[in-house]
Amino acid sequence: MPLNHLFAPIRLGRMEVRNRLVMPPMSVNFGVDEQGFVTEQHWVYLALRAKAGTGMIVMGGGTVHPDGLDLPRMPRVWDDCYIPGLSRLTAEVKRYGARIGLQLLHGGRQAFHERRVAPSPLPSLAVVKGVPRELANGEIKELVVAHAEAARRARDAGFDFVEIHAAHGYLISEFLAPNANRRNDEYGGSFENRTRFLLEIVSAIKERCGRDYPLGVRYNGEDYVAEGWHLDEAVRLGPLLQAAGADWLHVSAGVYGSLPVTIPSMYQSFGCFVHLAEAVKRAVSVPVIAVGRIKDPVMADRLIAEGRADLVAMGRAHLVDPELAAKAAQGRLNELRPCIGCCRGCIQNVLAMSEATCVMNPELGREYRLGQPRPAARPKRILVVGAGPAGLACTRLLALRGHRVIVVEERARPGGALVLASRPPGRAELLEMVEYQLAELQRLGVEIRLHAVVDESLVHELKPDVAVVASGANPRMPQLEGLFESGLELSTVLDVLSGEVIPGARVVVLGSDQAAMVTADFLAQGQRQVAVLGGDHFASELAPNDRTSLRQRLAAAGVKLYKRASIRKFRAGELVIDHQKGQELLIGFSDLVIAEGFRSERGTVDMFRKLGLEAHLLGDAKSPRTLLETTAEADELGRAL
């Protein structure tokens, strides 16, 4: 279907943009060296998205002042020395017809370093610890100038526009929100005073760069925290920003510590912040950009067609698939690589001060080194054992490079553990990884044999040159005295999620990893009483965004979490447990679900070695790990063979 609304041109101020698809600013923590100069890594990453046809690209986090540096590897724009490198970046992106802009950012109390400043000496609600220093009145005026000078440098470096970051709990957002701004001077208290800093920045940029230099403002429609910035004030501010010279408004939501979180996980609905942009749009005549878990171009097109937004920002969708715009414009929607909303590589990595990557796209940030997969020097016949996520991902790359690959799976359907992992509430998008890989393998003509046993006769039939063992893992059984004589109905997470076992009304889950926690959520639907006996952390493999939503669900369902818990003794109908707060007796629990991790299944390796066949372990068959690690490993092996 043609996406005529999404791919219609639009004018923002004096700037003509070729379509309504926006790659919003995202902190990726790569492509900037230790001195703050942008590198080839960054401009290749952005240029690939521009080449595919995205209309408007906003480079994330151009820091306007040293004290506002949000992450170590963010572009800096507080000095003219950064202009040459930024000029190279804009030239590389603009050659493909996209409009490239720079987001102007000051991290405020959410900056990663110890020199944090804020409107008031109040700590961030989450993630960042420590009390910031309160800005003096004169320093605020200096920061207004700093934003204007940063915009001038962006203009001189060839950026088509700038966008002020006044959202997500960073400095300007802190001035707007009553819970972060307790000032008693002209910048605090009333709505007029709290919005003064932002409006002064808009006016200063227009004065410094000219009224016709395109300028947008990204700000929150809702903070989603008590005493925060709310939609009524966001709607009230819209016309004031327009009058001050803003050429468009980009409406987002959330701060560190909000629910829902700023970057929503798979538990949140698609388009979860669109209603905020829609409300602001009704109050202004300048274009409005909507954002918030929009990953489907068809949905983006519909939002514009319905008049709910003028442009649509698709952030993580651009990280996952550099060719998003081309595939959408050409109607190749079935070839789109989907974001599964896990937040694992893009968000958790960045918060850990590492470079962003992606479960679905391990090439992210490495495009400048990897390029397109190179054809194999000598195509081989390759047998892949296991049609789970690692095996399928590796097979795709092997086939792209010209190898003849056959995938053999003993189960009745492909997908491995993801088939079951997608069954708990809110986890269905995990299966999209499998669906994408299967569509790719069908397009590439790869044979998948299901219900097949890998034995010597099959090896003799197929005559592979190489084998890749991606046979996955199975649950470990704990060594607990009296476990099998306890009278409890024993099962594993796989038994429960597959539906082979349906536990009774009161269930204990033993374990606290991701599998244990999503299984507890699965069990808690309805009237079951669920207790989880965990370790030091719960679902530590999940990204904070994902884990926050899951913990919220478990709390709402009344699931009882016991930290640092162990079973001391089994009695008839009872369990004596030790946990962080002491000893406790659990009465009336009839079922025990085992979720104590997994052990690798690699039985075919010895056979391959006996037959003298080159074999490579991959994914959980090598060592049970997260999807992020196994898909990265699959990518590397697929390029290496």
SSE layout and pairing:
Layout: E1 10-12, E2 15-17, E3 21-23, H1 40-51, E4 56-63, H2 83-94, E5 99-105, E6 117-118, E7 133-134, H3 137-156, E8 161-166, H4 171-176, H5 191-194, H6 196-209, E9 215-222, H7 231-244, E10 248-253, H8 274-281, E11 288-290, H9 297-305, E12 311-313, H10 315-320, H11 324-329, H12 344-351, H13 367-370, E13 381-385, H14 389-400, E14 404-408, H15 417-421, H16 430-443, E15 447-449, H17 456-462, E16 466-469, E17 473-475, E18 489-492, H18 493-498, E19 506-510, H19 514-523, E20 529-533, H20 544-556, E21 560-562, E22 566-571, E23 574-579, E24 582-587, E25 591-594, E26 598-600, H21 604-610, E27 614-617, H22 627-640
Parallel strand pairs: 3-4, 3-12, 4-5, 5-8, 6-7, 8-9, 9-10, 10-11, 11-12, 13-14, 13-16, 14-15, 16-27, 18-25, 19-20, 19-25, 20-21
Antiparallel strand pairs: 1-2, 17-26, 22-23, 23-24
Folded structure, characterized:
With 641 residues, the protein is of the alpha/beta class. It folds into three domains: 10-369, TIM Barrel, CATH 3.20.20; 375-475 and 600-640, NAD(P)-binding Rossmann-like Domain (Rossmann fold); 483-596, FAD/NAD(P)-binding domain (3-Layer(bba) Sandwich), CATH 3.50.50.60. The chain contains 22 helices and 27 strands. An eight-stranded parallel β-barrel has the order 3-4-5-8-9-10-11-12, surrounded by seven helices. The protein has a five-stranded parallel beta sheet with strand order 15-14-13-16-27, with helices on both faces. The chain has a five-stranded parallel beta sheet with strand order 18-25-19-20-21. Strand 1 and strand 2 form a beta hairpin. Helix 1 packs parallel to helix 2 (83-94), helix 14 runs parallel beside helix 16 and helix 14 (389-400) runs parallel beside helix 22. The protein is globular, with a radius of gyration of 27 Å. The mean pLDDT is 95.
